[in-house]
Amino acid sequence: MNGWLCGSKKFIFQFTNLKTLFFMIQSRRTFLKNSGLALAGASLASQSLFSFPKSTQLLGIQLYTVRDAMGKDPLGSLKKLSAMGYQNVEHAWYRDRKFYGYAPAEFKKILADLGMKMPSGHTVLAKNHWDESKKDFTDAWKYTVEDAATAGQQYVVSPWLDETLYQTEDSLKHFMDVFNKCGELCKKSGMKFGYHNHHFEFAKKVNGKILYDLILDNTDKNLVVQQLDTGNLFNAGVKAIDIVKKFPGRFELMHVKDEIVAKGKEHEEEKYESAILGQGIAQIKEVIDLGKAAGTKIFIVEQEAYQGKDPFDCSKEDIDAMKKWGY
Questions:
Q1: What is the pLDDT of residue 171?
Q2: Angle between helices 74-84 and 311-324 in degrees, nearest 10
Q3: 294 phi and psi, to 5 degrees?
Q4: Are strands 117-122 and 130-131 parallel, antiparallel or unpaired?
Q5: Full-prediction pTM beyond 0.70?
Q6: Most CB within 10 Å of its CB: which of 108, 264, 276, 296?
Q7: Residue 299 is inside which H or E element, if any?
Q8: Alpha-carbon gap, residue 200 to 182, rounded angstroms
């Protein structure tokens, strides 16, 4: 009996130790498993907190900003802009089927070698580009669209509207129909057609209606996008911030331009001129933030006046401002 009890106690002691050991092993495994899950969770949380999604917006520069230099040395000018951090450009010089003297495919390669692209460009769609007798675009305009596609553009933007085209509401509506047809033409090449404003669209009225309102009312937003120039309209007594609020979602592209009163022109009709971003009165960050929230995809920096500074120095300050604002 005593032997059995002793043996039983020994067995119970051993069983207890084994149970304890098993519990300790399982507890450690549970601890390590839970620790691993915790670490993985912490890692995912860290990635979620500190890795931000890439912006879907593009930032670029209108080459008119450095127009004189582009006219003399386009390759050297592009190298300077690339070194500043500009990865996208918008042209303002298409002549004889060439961009700054280069064939479309050649210009595209030059940009690619510098790590750059040209998502948009300015070429005026004029009255003589539409053949009324044939109800079709002229070959010259068809080549314009073709060359834009070859150069890699996503948008063909017309930056002007001749005064003869909006003498009456009917004449304007007729040409806005041409705009819509151009949107269809560009769509066939995988691009979009757009219009870029100056200040006259807000200063002029046709049949008692503001010209810019008529342009937007008579163009199909799916065929004709708008590139709002945030500075030009100031000379019409209009603020960009008000236009963005009035037409939410209509500005797929923006010309990012700040404005100041030009020295010596305080009492003139066109008294405002462009300036380095953030140094003027255009509420520029608020404007582009509203645009971004409403779907603006491409922000193009443009500065036409420099207040005595070098255009390239201004371009550098402009991109620095945009980057500081998260663009």
A1: 98
A2: 30
A3: -95, 0
A4: unpaired
A5: yes
A6: 296
A7: strand 298-301
A8: 23
Say which residue, 2 or 96, is predicted with more confidence.
96
Give the H or E element holding residue 261.
strand 258-261
Q: What is the pLDDT of residues 141-193, one digit of tens each?
A: 999 999 999 999 999 999 999 999 999 999 999 999 999 999 999 999 999 99
Confidence of residue 56 (pLDDT cuts 50, 70, 90): confident
**DSSP class of residue 163?**
G
Tokens 């923006």 sit on residue? 254
For the chain, the 3-state helix, strand and coil shares in percent, each to the nearest 5, are 50, 20, 30
Whole-angstrom Cα distance, residue 263 to residue 250?
A: 34
Where is 318: in which H helix or E strand? helix 311-324
* Assigned token pair, 86: 């500009």
Q: Whole-angstrom Cα distance, residue 80 to residue 321? A: 18
What is the mean pLDDT of the segment spanning 6-18? Answer: 39
> Residue 95 in 3-state DSSP?
strand
| Residue 41 confidence (pLDDT) above 90 | no
Tell me how far apart the alpha carbons of residues 295 and 57 are, in angstroms, rounded to a whole number: 9
The band of 55, judged by pLDDT with boundaries at 50, 70 and 90, is low
The stretch 47-58 carries a mean pLDDT of 51
Cα distance between residue 229 and residue 291, in whole Å: 12
Q: Contact at 8 Å (CB) between 131 and 137?
A: yes
Which residue has 């402009």 as its token pair? 318
At the fourth CATH level, which superfamily is domain 58-324? Divalent-metal-dependent TIM barrel enzymes (3.20.20.150)
User: Three-state DSSP class for 104?
Assistant: helix
Share of the chain above pLDDT 90, in %: 82
